[in-house]
Amino acid sequence: MCWKHPAWFTLVDVVDYETTRKGEPEKGLVISRKSLATFIAKIIESSGRYARQNLGVNKPNP
């Protein structure tokens, strides 16, 4: 999996994220550390689900 990097990690105690796939426009540059940790745990738990994907992850914009 290739990773698009968020520009800013917050310490907000909230899990709220969305992903984008290669070729889709990135929707944001901010994500909470808790959201990122939750997504990483999801990747580990579901081995293969995100295999060979190029994903971006960010806080959803209103």
Largest sheet: 3 strands, mixed
**Spatial sequence of strands, sheet with the most strands:** 1-5-3
What is the number of helices? 1
Question: Beta fraction of the residues?
Answer: 25-35%
| Helical proportion, percent range | 10-25%
Number of strands: 5
Q: Please state the structural category.
A: alpha/beta
Shape: flat
Q: If you compute it from the alpha carbons, what radius of gyration comes out, rounded to the nearest whole angstrom?
A: 11 Å
Structural domain count: 1
Low-confidence stretches: none
SSE order in H/E notation?
Answer: EEEEHE
Straight-line distance between termini: 27 Å
- Summed over residues and divided by their number, the pLDDT gives a mean of 86
Key descriptive features of the protein:
single chain, 3-stranded mixed sheet, two-stranded parallel ribbon, 21% helix, alpha/beta, 62 residues, 5 strands, 1 helix
Blueprint of the fold:
Layout: E1 2-4, E2 8-10, E3 18-21, E4 30-32, H1 33-45, E5 54-58
Parallel strand pairs: 1-5, 2-4
Antiparallel strand pairs: 3-5
Question: Can you put this structure into words, describing what you see?
Answer:
This protein has 62 residues and is an alpha/beta fold. The chain is flat. The protein has one domain.
